[in-house]
């Protein structure tokens, strides 16, 4: 059997998505040890450093050409008495229903550009060669990442058209207000064999509203938990872990970030603790380590390169008693290791993510809404409380992690019913 794994980390620069991807690859390989497993990526070498159980594949250029508007009707849209959006929607519907006819038309239109013709042909022919398509975990099916989500969902529509079954694991769905994204979900996700969600507060209700049968939904928690716990050290920790990210979907301002850091530094001075970064994103334009370290007064960057790996992240968290974070997966890695978390939020996207995560673990995480007037006081109180009561939460967090790993494995076991 030939299996394709789609994912949320084409450049392998996000520790959370990469951890979920590794778990997905390992579990699929365990279930189908003689199958060929391919993973979509832009960074073959980095991917293969994470797992030797998969082969790298890239059809991203061909997919982009396939989805490019007006590559079937072309200038005809100028002659028709409709607006451009209607023509584009008709063309996309035609591609979805008649992909092989559409492919021939697009190849004809690219007949003077052999590279484009080859790329789009490769995308369709490669996809058709698979027996099973899997989406590994991530929070990318949401308005904040509409472009990426749409491309992946369009790939699933094609897979379904070619009678290829597909499964989704470790998914965080929403928030979604985009009509475009809602429409794509209505078309394709009700046809999924299984959708495993990492939280139960928002995702199930949203998917059911968009036509997914609740019988095809399971709640598992985040797949990265297994990776986060795989090298857990039981030694006493005496550091404060810090993650600050500035991105459009975060809503964190520089003024509030400075207050977050200075408050942590003051408390660290009182307790004799060290503040260390716990970066999740390694993207050039969204680099947690660079953004966090710039805010710290006494950060030694000599070990920066080693920190930006999954093992480096686990090693950093192992030193921490509390994690202060604006990003989701820093909290996942912390809670999975029995560490308490102060989650600082300033956008609806992250409110949903952190609430869902807190619900799955039950305790050991406090959310501080940066839009509230009293957030600074609440933050200071959370710091003191979690520092002094560090060991009170460990047993409950460990138990929650173990249960979520078991549920996630159980969900993956349903792949054994996939076509062979």
Helix and strand topology:
Elements: E1 2-6, H1 15-31, E2 36-40, H2 44-50, E3 55-57, H3 60-67, H4 84-97, H5 99-109, H6 114-128, E4 132-135, E5 138-141, H7 146-161, E6 166-173, H8 179-188, E7 194-197, H9 203-209, E8 217-219, H10 224-229, E9 239-243, H11 254-271, E10 274-277, E11 282-283, E12 286-287, H12 288-295, H13 304-307, H14 310-318, E13 320-325, H15 328-336, E14 340-345, H16 348-361, E15 365-369, H17 375-388, H18 394-413
Parallel strand pairs: 1-2, 1-4, 2-3, 4-6, 5-6, 6-7, 7-8, 9-10, 9-13, 13-14, 14-15
Antiparallel strand pairs: 11-12
Helix pairs in contact: 3-6, 4-5, 5-6, 7-8, 11-17, 15-16
Give structural notes.
The protein starts with a strand and ends in a 7-residue tail after the last helix. Helix 5 runs antiparallel to helix 6 and helix 15 (328-336) runs parallel beside helix 16 (348-361). The protein is globular, with a radius of gyration of 23 Å. With 420 residues, it is α/β, with parallel strands linked by helices. It folds into two domains: 2-226 and 406-417, 3-Layer(aba) Sandwich (Rossmann fold); 230-398, Rossmann fold (3-Layer(aba) Sandwich). The strands form three sheets. Strands 1, 2, 3, 4, 5, 6, 7 and 8 form an eight-stranded parallel β-sheet that branches. Strands 10-9-13-14-15 form a five-stranded parallel β-sheet, with helices on both faces. A two-stranded antiparallel ribbon has the order 11-12. The chain has 18 helices and 15 strands.
């Amino acid at each position: 059997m030939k299996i394709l794994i789609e994912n949320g980390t084409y450049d392998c620069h996000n520790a959370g998505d990469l951890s979920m991807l590794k778990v997905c690859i390992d579990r699929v390989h365990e279930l189908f040890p003689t199958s060929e497993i391919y993973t979509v990526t832009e960074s073959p070498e980095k991917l293969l450093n994470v797992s030797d159980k998969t082969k790298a594949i890239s059809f991203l250029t061909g997919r982009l050409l396939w989805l490019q508007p007006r590559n079937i009707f072309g200038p005809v849209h100028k002659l028709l008495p409709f607006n451009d959006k209607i023509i584009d929607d008709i063309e996309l519907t035609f591609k979805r229903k008649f992909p092989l006819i559409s492919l021939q038309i697009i190849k004809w239109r690219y007949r003077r550009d052999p590279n484009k013709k080859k790329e789009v042909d490769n995308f369709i022919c490669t996809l058709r060669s698979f027996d099973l398509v899997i989406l590994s975990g991530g929070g990318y099916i949401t308005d904040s990442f509409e472009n990426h989500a749409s491309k992946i969902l369009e790939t699933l529509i094609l897979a379904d058209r070619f009678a290829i079954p597909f499964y989704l694991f470790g998914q965080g769905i929403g928030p979604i207000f985009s009509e475009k994204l809602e429409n794509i979900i209505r078309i394709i996700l009700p046809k999924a064999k299984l959708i495993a969600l990492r939280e139960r507060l928002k995702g199930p209700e949203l998917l059911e509203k968009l036509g997914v049968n609740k019988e095809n939904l399971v709640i598992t928690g985040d797949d990265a938990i297994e990776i986060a716990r795989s090298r857990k050290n039981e030694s006493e920790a005496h550091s404060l872990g810090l993650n600050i990210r500035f991105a459009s979907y975060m809503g964190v301002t520089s003024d509030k970030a400075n207050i977050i850091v200075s408050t942590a530094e003051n408390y660290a001075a009182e307790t004799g603790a060290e503040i260390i970064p716990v970066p999740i994103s390694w993207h050039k334009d969204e680099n947690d380590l660079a953004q966090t370290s710039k805010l710290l007064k006494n950060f030694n960057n000599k070990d920066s390169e080693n920190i930006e790996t999954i093992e480096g992240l686990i090693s950093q968290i192992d030193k921490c008693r509390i994690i202060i974070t604006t990003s989701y997966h820093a909290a996942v890695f912390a809670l999975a290791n029995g560490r308490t978390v102060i989650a600082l939020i300033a956008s609806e996207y992250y409110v949903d993510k952190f609430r869902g995560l807190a619900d799955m673990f039950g305790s050991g995480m406090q959310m501080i809404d940066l839009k509230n007037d009293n957030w600074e006081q609440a933050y200071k109180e959370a710091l003191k409380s979690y520092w002094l009561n560090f060991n009170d939460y460990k047993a409950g967090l460990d138990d929650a992690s173990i249960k979520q790993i078991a549920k996630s494995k159980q969900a993956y076991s349903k792949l054994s019913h996939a076509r062979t």
